[in-house]
UniProtKB/TrEMBL annotation:
Domain Glycerol-3-phosphate dehydrogenase NAD-dependent C-terminal: 156-296
Catalysed reactions listed for this entry: sn-glycerol 3-phosphate + NAD(+) = dihydroxyacetone phosphate + NADH + H(+); sn-glycerol 3-phosphate + NADP(+) = dihydroxyacetone phosphate + NADPH + H(+)
Subcellular location: Cytoplasm
Binding locations of NADPH: 16, 36-37, 84, 116, 231, 257
Recorded metabolic or biological pathway in which this protein acts: Membrane lipid metabolism; glycerophospholipid metabolism
Active-site residues (renumbered): 167
Residues reported to bind NAD(+): 12-17, 231
Binding site for substrate: 84, 231-232
Function recorded in the entry: Catalyzes the reduction of the glycolytic intermediate dihydroxyacetone phosphate (DHAP) to sn-glycerol 3-phosphate (G3P), the key precursor for phospholipid synthesis.
Organism from which the protein derives: Waterburya agarophytonicola KI4
EC numbers, comma separated: 1.1.1.94
Name of the protein this chain belongs to: Glycerol-3-phosphate dehydrogenase [NAD(P)+]
Length: 318
């Protein structure tokens, strides 16, 4: 599909960075991996790269940026962020942090229903690359698109990023739902009511509401909330088995960003007085304040209300 080979630096060699690197490599691009635990210098990895893609977990974003800042990154390099998290101190998204650190570089968000283990197996999937700089997003689209990985562009980086980030909180709730065998009706109600919750927070933070109905919102919500491959789902499932959070995290392979994201989301909701009933129960559950049964009761016993009363959005695209 691609004719010209580009040098792509992938920062973070966890399962997602590795899977993304393998996709670009199969498109004949020259991939250079960097890990904070490895021996290669960051400078040598990013030196000739056209694209610098960060797939480090949220806890590594600030440290990685601090290292890159020392290297005087040229402003023509496209920074791609694939992290799905929120900064606990500032509540900012990774793309906001990257853009503030490198104001002259194009920053592109890559996010979608992308369980890395399925992608590593070459199963078909789709994703979104979003940026205020459309040409940069299209360049990233060109580099990663393949006949098994369909890449769409859009111009709502914050909405695209927040869809992938906020759904991790709901994936924990969904794991609880399945772990307690609450059935398909309960799961459908949970996911459907979660979407306006995500939209309320997202639009408050500057996202476009319609983005949440696309691949990076609804698409990723479905994928993550319905798959035992999701680490966030596994956290919820474990809580439903009466395991402690510490025990679950100790057994977990890789990062469950939803645990930190729940804390940041509640911080934002409390500061801005935004209703997030599902996330609030997840927060209480993670902190050991309530049991899964009490969380379900609290959600079911809330005051009755009209179904559509608190979000406004317009679908403008076909
Ligand atoms: N795994 C997936 O299916 C998937 C899909 C889409 C997005 N994501 C997101 O991508 C990010 C990475 O996910 P993953 O599954 O590869 O996680 P992982 O736990 O497998 O890997 C985390 C990576 O972050 C790096 N890291 C951690 N602390 C660091 C630090 N202080 N400095 C530099 N690097 C540090 C680790 O070395 C590792 O390379 C997460 O935000 C996740 O939500 C994951
Ligand atoms: O394993 P998780 O829970 O981080 O989920 C993976 C991705 O975010 C799904 O798109």
């Amino acid at each position: 599909m691609n004719i010209k080979s580009n040098i792509v630096a992938i920062l973070g060699t966890g399962v997602w960075g590795s899977a993304l690197g393998a996709i670009a490599k199969s498109n004949s691009h020259d991939i250079r991996f960097w890990s904070h635990r490895g021996t290669d210098s960051l400078e040598s990895i990013v030196k000739d790269a056209v694209i610098v893609l960060s797939a480090v977990s949220m806890k590594g974003v600030m440290a990685t940026i601090a290292k890159l800042k020392k290297l005087n990154l040229s402003s023509d390099k496209i920074i791609v962020t694939a992290t799905k998290g929120l900064d606990p101190e500032t509540t900012r998204t990774p793309s906001q942090i990257w853009q503030a650190a490198f104001p002259d570089n194009p920053v592109v968000v890559l996010s979608g229903p992308n369980l890395s283990k399925e992608i590593a197996r070459g199963l078909p999937a789709a994703t979104v690359v979003a940026s205020n700089d459309l040409a940069a997003a299209e360049k990233v689209q060109d580099i990663f698109a393949s006949d098994t990985f369909r890449v769409y562009v859009n111009q709502d980086p914050i909405g695209t990023e927040l869809g992938g980030t906020l759904k991790n909180v709901i994936a924990i709730a969904s794991g609880v739902c399945d772990g307690m065998n609450l059935g398909t009706n309960a799961k459908a109600a949970l996911l459907t009511r979660a979407l306006p919750e995500m939209i309320r927070i997202g639009t408050h933070l500057g996202a476009s509401g319609e983005t949440f109905f696309g691949l990076s919102g609804l698409g990723d919500l479905i994928a993550t909330c319905d798959s035992p491959l999701s680490r966030n789902y596994q956290v919820g499932y474990g809580l439903a088995q009466d395991k402690t959070l510490e025990q679950i995290l100790a057994e977990l392979e890789g990062t469950a960003e939803g645990v930190n994201t729940t804390n940041v989301l509640i911080k934002i909701a409390d500061m801005e007085t935004i209703a997030v009933p599902i996330a609030r129960q997840v927060h209480r559950l993670l902190r050991g304040k309530i049991t899964p049964v009490e969380a379900i009761q609290a959600l079911m016993e809330r005051d009755l209300k009209p179904e559509f009363c608190d979000i406004e959005f317009e679908i403008t695209n076909e």
